[in-house]
Write a structure and sequence with these properties.
- The chain is of the alpha/beta class.
- The protein is about 35% helix and about 20% strand.
- The protein is built from 14 helices and ten strands.
- Strand 1, helix 2 and strand 2 form a beta-alpha-beta unit.
- The N terminus is likely disordered.
């Protein structure tokens, strides 16, 4: 969820007063020194939405002897930019959160040391976008979609938008907030969704109409969702006035999980005709100080234990076959049968040009 993501969705926990895990100290590894590595720290660099259960990370420490330290570096796009600037002398050992919208940029900059994670055979081929080279490991998938404030639309007796086309209709003028394409993974995913829908020759005309219809652009997901979107818990506290936001298909379960008491229905819905499919990856950073710990952590990220922990922590879908998804996640999350997609080679070839064109058209 970054996202995305991230989608990238669990920054919501912070907005709802739920503490997220910045670092986890584990137990001393059991067993003799001959069959256990010395306890060390392995540093995971990520976007702000990474979170995992303390018990799960403690189990990793127990099994491997490595303690996980999480270094959060902003939105997925901003986090990747920092790693590119420190290439060869990375801030940590593993980077998590680069997605299919930004993957070619990370690979072209040579950020990762190839490593074939244990258990990769249980990950479907369609999400192994670097298959054979193993510079990155798929960890999760999610759908970037417009979310809507159910109460707003019920009070206005107005049907919420369900498609890209709906968003440019007069009745939805000045209602949508989205993230900056140049700095945000969800924002870029939403742009790519419009490319998938309208093609290379039609997306700019669509954004001209969206701009004319009052779309608001902010830097990142957390600001958009927790400060500008009237349907989120954070947005309600901030007295936000935008009932439409670019977020994730899995954002409604987060609103239910962290509410006290939990409502019978999610306060937000998903416009399923506005979605773009996102896959997030992790990779061993070139120049990592703890390369062996990094490899162990990559193995762990696609273990069944970690994969089953993700849905109600990061609100993303597991990639490992057979990983179970909690009922709350499936009950309140939206199923997106036909998300928009753009081929990775097409993204790689055109992304920078699309971002520049979008910036000139929408922001300047």
């Amino acid at each position: 969820m970054s996202t995305t993501k991230k989608i990238t969705v669990t920054a919501l926990a912070a907005a709802l007063g739920v503490s997220t895990l910045a670092a986890c100290g584990g137990e001393q590894a059991k067993g003799s020194a001959s069959d256990r590595p010395k306890q060390k720290t392995v540093t995971l660099v990520s976007h702000d939405s990474f979170v995992a259960s303390a018990s799960v990370l403690k189990q990793f420490t127990k099994e491997t002897g490595y303690t996980v330290k999480v270094l959060k570096s902003g939105d997925a796009g901003a986090a990747l930019n920092k790693e590119i600037l420190t290439k060869g002398s990375p801030q940590g050992d593993v980077f998590f959160g680069v997605d299919n919208t930004l993957l070619s940029r990370a690979l072209d900059n040579g950020l990762f040391t190839p490593y074939e994670a244990k258990g990769l055979a249980q990950v479907p081929d369609e999400v192994q976008l670097d298959k054979g080279k193993h510079r990155v490991t798929p960890v999760d998938t999610g759908d970037i979609c417009v979310n809507y404030d159910k109460k707003y639309f019920a009070d206005k007796k107005l049907a919420p938008p369900q498609s890209f086309d709906d968003l440019i209709k007069p009745e939805y003028k000045n209602l949508l907030v989205t993230e900056n394409v140049a700095t945000s993974s969800p924002g870029l995913g939403f742009l790519l969704g419009s490319v998938g829908k309208y093609g290379e020759d039609g997306w700019q005309d669509y954004w001209k109409k969206l701009k004319a219809n009052g779309v608001k652009v902010v830097d990142g997901w957390e600001q958009a969702y927790n400060e500008e979107f009237s349907g989120s818990a954070g947005g309600k506290k901030a007295k936000a006035d935008r009932p439409l936001v670019v977020s994730y298909a899995s954002s409604p379960p987060a609103e239910v999980l962290f509410a006290k008491p939990q409502p019978a229905q999610a306060p937000t819905g998903v416009s399923t005709g506005t979605c773009f499919r996102q896959t997030e990856f992790a990779g061993l950073l070139k120049g990592a100080k703890n390369e062996e710990g990094g490899k162990a952590l990559l193995d762990f990220l696609i273990s069944k234990q970690f994969q089953e922990d993700m849905p109600l922590n990061m609100f993303v879908n597991p990639v490992v076959k057979g990983a179970k998804v909690p009922e709350l996640f499936t009950k309140f999350g939206a199923v997106v049968d036909k998300p928009e997609t753009v081929a990775p080679d097409q993204i790689a070839k055109n992304r920078e040009q699309w971002v520049q064109s979008w910036s000139s058209l929408v922001v300047k």
